[in-house]
Amino acid sequence: MSSQKETRVDAVVVGAGFGGVYQTYSFKSAGYSVRCIERAPTAGGVWYWNRYPGAMSDTESYLYRYSWDKEDLLTYPWPNRYVTQPEILKYLNHVVDKHNLRESMQFNTSMESATWDAEQNLWHVVCDTGDVFAARYLVTAMGALSEAHFPQIAGLNSFAGRLLHTQDWPDDIDLTGKTVAVIGSGSTGVQLMTAIAPRVKRLVSFQRSPQHSVPTGQGPVSEEERKEINANYDKIYEKIWQSNSGFLTNESDRPMSSYTPEQRQEIFEWLWQQGNAFRFNMSKFSDITTNEEANRETAKFIEGKIAQIVKDPKKAKALTPKTLYHRRPLCDTGYYYIFNQDHVDIVDLRETPIESIVPEGIRTKDGTVHELDVLIFATGFDALEGTYARTKITGRDGHTIAEHWKNGPSSFAGVSMAGFPNMFMVFGPQGPMSNGATVVEVEVRFIMQLIANVEKSGAATESGAKKPKLIEVKPEVEAQWRKLCDKEAETSILKKATNSWIFGTNVPGRKPIVTFYFPGLKGWLEITRKEAEQGFPSYM
Ligand code: NAP
């Protein structure tokens, strides 16, 4: 325990992204004193750090927001089908101000450690600013994807130009007229390259694995469409809480084989014109991610589109995956088309790997030195473990999260860990695989239910007369949950992907894990609803 003077609060929330903002609001509106600490200078979470050009949500605007502020749902503007990073940042800060949450928030502050004090039943939270808090409840809403993955490439630090990672985009960079390389072609790389292609002198994608991408369908939302959505918001959310994905109000239960080959092609084409990767995957066919034949047919359709769009056969070949359609689905605003411009090129690292980074740029194994002004890593994240490695969280009996996760990150329901009483995670490992904006809502509500359950019994008094009842998940429940998550992921074709953060395989040295509860929102809500109805039997 620290000898510094501690500020006593009921709860500390770490992180002011989508999860932390709602968690802070929930504590505040339930009458708890709360301090939310955030390492960035403002609220926003991943949407503060990922400021790279083109950053945009690929959940449709009307669902990429909180459902709990009905007035805001009806009035807050979102002129286009998708919200961009600056719009999301503005929206989150608007919510913070509208609900007077800024007074409970402290920016430019990182949690260095949190230690459970079993004598006093408190968490002691030490920050890099020198602030120390003592709190009954600790909620980490630090995000699963908040630590950059920088692959160790020989000579990385020798580059004489500007070296960037999309996860920490500087404000002072102007790419106009520059020769730029991008390493990484996932959700981030595809958005970034599409956005910067028109303004750079030369753009080269150093691509290790091409992925299948479909159009977003980005475009303006008419007044009539908005009115229609507003008139139906209650019904829309009723359906969303009944969905697996949290993205769609119409998830198909018809397998691809129930359509004729001609019908399938018509449907694919219609889906392509509509846009949205999640709609493409789930709204018309039920088995794209579970049936290999259906998956291959989908992949083939997208590969046909690549062949149609990309004129240069060499570039088209490099952009065409030779795998199943088994990564996190991508969508774009014209990605394949940028390769029809002479100043946009691609190096297929499957054929010509990178040998090293040199002061001038990238040297590939064929001896070519690709001279560059700017080298951008869009190489993703050291998910979960990377995030939690930034701080030392010590639970009961000196047991740290690093020790708890020695076989890979785990939790019960994405929220609780055995041996970490009165601590909760928002978007922790093995939470529902669904739209992040809905996941944080249901998880925060579950956390508040758990807290209300012990507090209503009067057990959590601070009189000292009786030991407050703690909220601590049973170890066997956490172990069973992990097994269940492994089992639920078994039949998914996504499991066949290599180098995927969803399975903990994108960062060398990390233990493979199943990061999500695959049945998604609906299944997770059924389980946690039962927990609440039965008095939370998974907790001691
Ligand atoms: P990612 O999906 O992990 O992709 C990383 C990319 O970097 C891959 O193309 C990977 O190639 C490449 N890479 C990694 N190490 C490399 C190396 N040593 N040499 C060459 N290439 C290398 O990361 P991300 O694109 O940042 O996306 C991560 C997640 O963030 C997404 O799944 C999504 O959940 C979220 N995200 C969402 C949005 C949105 O809402 N629209 C936007 C951006 C990100 P390999 O495939 O060969 O490993």
Summarize the structure in words.
It comes from Sporothrix eucalyptigena. Keywords: FAD, Flavoprotein, NADP, Oxidoreductase. By secondary structure, this protein is an alpha/beta fold. Strands 1, 2, 3, 4, 5, 6, 17 and 18 form an 8-stranded mixed β-sheet that branches. Strands 7-16-8-9-12 form a 5-stranded parallel β-sheet. The two termini are 25 Å apart. α1 packs parallel to α14. The chain folds into 2 domains: 292 residues, FAD/NAD(P)-binding domain; 222 residues, no CATH class. The radius of gyration is 24 Å and the shape is globular. The model has no long low-confidence stretch (mean pLDDT 96). NADP nicotinamide-adenine-dinucleotide phosphate (NAP) binds next to α5. NADP nicotinamide-adenine-dinucleotide phosphate binds next to α5.
Topology:
Layout: E1 7-14, H1 18-29, E2 34-37, H2 46-49, H3 70-75, H4 85-98, E3 105-106, E4 111-117, E5 122-127, E6 132-140, E7 162-165, E8 179-183, H5 187-196, E9 202-207, E10 213-215, H6 223-240, H7 261-274, H8 277-282, H9 292-309, H10 313-319, E11 330-332, H11 335-338, E12 344-348, E13 354-358, E14 361-364, E15 369-371, E16 374-377, H12 385-388, E17 392-394, H13 401-404, E18 423-425, E19 431-432, H14 436-456, H15 475-490, E20 516-517, H16 520-533
Parallel strand pairs: 1-2, 1-6, 2-3, 4-17, 6-18, 7-16, 8-9, 8-16, 9-12, 10-11, 19-20
Antiparallel strand pairs: 4-5, 5-6, 13-14, 14-15
